[in-house]
Amino acid sequence: MFRFNKKLNIWVKEDETSPLLESQDKLFPLSEIINPAGSYIKVFGHQHPDLDSIASSIAVAYLLNSRGMNVNACRLGKYNAETLFAMKHFSVEVDLQYIDAVSDKDKVILVDHNEASQSAVNIENADIMMVIDHHGINNFSNANPIDFTTKPWGCASTIIYKMLKEANIKPRRDVWGMLLSAIISDTLLLRSPTTTEEDKGAAKELATQLGENLEKYGIALLSSGTDTSKMTARDILLGDSKLYTLGKLRIRISATSFVKHDSVLDRRKEIELEMFDIISNESLDLFLVMITDIINCDSDLLVLGNRRDIVCRAFGIMLRNNTAFVKGLVSRKKQVVPVLTKLLKS
Ligand code: MG
Ligand code: MG
Ligand code: MG
Fold first, then answer.
1. Which bound ligand lies closest to the C-alpha atom of 47?
2. Which residues surround ligand 1, an ion (CB under 5 A)?
3. pLDDT tens per residue, range 94-142
């Protein structure tokens, strides 16, 4: 069977291995694989997508389309700096379809999240066929039978990598590279307390297959996400941010990180003004920003909103200039959300 390769502008045999076509990536552009014509099932991660949300969407589309489904990889926001670094490093020449809402008729697959408040607008009315996630489940319900996979692992991409392996899907450098990058990003290079043996095993295996030095690539990738000097306060606050409804409270928790110096706390006044704006626009009770030192694995917290007392109680801290240092705190998912959830239930 022959197919026309637009990039190389020639007809090629599907199994041909000429020097021009040394990799499968060139024979089948990723864009055709993850956004095939006529696809109607949308797969996407959370709003303000991080690397894991983008990598998971790409990899799930690759997995399911390889098995004859018709899945379209989407994103609910712009790529962050880390994601762009990984896409460039592994030559991921594809742009996921941008959407912000889904229709009542849409069939969807959620990756790297399950909460409606973090998902596409109107998700409550769409037909959710599948969820692959590694977060807690606080507000999810679905009337129809559903394919729901959740693991208490450090990264959704670790779960999906295992699925790809079990299904014997052919490795591609671009997809495999995104999965490795997502694991590094979500687990802070396997140092976050969310890291499991599964994540470590997957990261090491992927790095070996890709010929990457895990530590060297990992530090370069994590550092790429920390340059906030040219970012606006709003981009810093919403680049990696999640909205929660815990008890009766609306809480936004944002994360930003730094390597060595250059903490965004140097711009505290400007950032606080933007936080006040978001608090009033979104009627938030609490806005918590985690400013994480990714080498030492500690965080400064910047906290605003009427219910700042909750954060003080949760971590036994006092705020000074709306900030406090918390040793060993790096994970929103494992160290912040469960503590706040428990506190607000009692
Ligand atoms: Mg995520
Ligand atoms: Mg994740
Ligand atoms: Mg993250």
1. 1
2. 50, 52-53, 112
3. 999 999 999 999 999 999 999 999 999 999 999 999 999 999 998 898 8
